[in-house]
Amino acid sequence: MSLLENGNLTCQGREAGLFLPEPDTSIDPGQPQRRASPGWQPKSLGQALHDAVEEAKANPDSARQLFDFMTLYRHDDEYVDRVRTNFADLGIELDDVSQ
Hints:
elongated, mainly alpha
């Protein structure tokens, strides 16, 4: 029994689940686990994007990180130019970004 419970031996068949340990019922599998600090509230996607843009306007390192994120999987010149144009339209300076 202990070999089945700790996973060293697997069993097959219709009744195999009877030999597995019971799930931890103190955790509700239907609810995501939160690791929130006191006072922290989740943001909407729109608010998070707004905050990221505002931070990028004020902080060149944040602008670089946001640009790197936006161009993480696409490096073709047309796409990168479009991202640069979008950043300029939003008022985000990209002088230090070299991509």
